[in-house]
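Chapter summary example.
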Amino acid sequence: MKLFVVNAKPGVSRPAILHSHGGGYILGKAAWEVGHLQALARDLDCVIVSVEYRLAPETRYQGSIEDNYAGLLWLCKNAEPIGADPTRIALLGESAGGGHSALLAITARDRGEVPVAFQALVYPMLDDRTGSTRMPPPFIGAFGWDAPSNRFGWEAFLGHPPGGGSVPVGGVPARIENLTGLPPAFIGVGGIDLFVSEDIEYGHRLIESGVPVELVIVPGAFHGFDRIAADTTIAKRFTKAKVNALRRAFGQPQEI
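The structure predicted for these 256 residues follows.
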């Protein structure tokens, strides 16, 4: 496991983010996200630790969960040297990284070693049943990440065909029955993203479990639209909503 530390400032106490990159559980590198994370760290005046977790299928969900959790422990234990406030740690991830962040929030709650203040889940990949036993309309998930890709990613991650009753529950956030006691959440997703229904449902279940949730659905937006079309009005509005959610979690003034 490798960690990338962005905007460390020893001797101060600022909010911190533990970041998990996307890539369908099978692709991606933390290094590819450094530019985006530098901009975010500057805007929030925070320190960000991004985890180079092991990818599927060589490593199944158990291994990557432990990689992300090890990154969280490292952040907490090294808070003073990197200038982090261990009481203001947020989890952030996009797509499969959002799935990892959701799993990490659950793991941190269950182990009780590190307090997590917030989870920001950006079009998170949460449910193996999407595209396997639950098929969306043809216009949902037609661009960016589709149903066949989703089935492949989940099978690689779980080591088991997705969608059935014998799927290992511990690797699928949407299959975790008890969501009580999790940190407040921001969930943002496009209206034609493959993950839109599962993300809405997860947000609904969090709300019914007593977890404060901000749910942002962007009409007509596809998977990864905020990166692919970053200069569009809807992408800028979405990014501002995400950043403001983190500002609120950190006790910072909102951006108008």
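To summarize the output: The longest strand covers residues 84-94.
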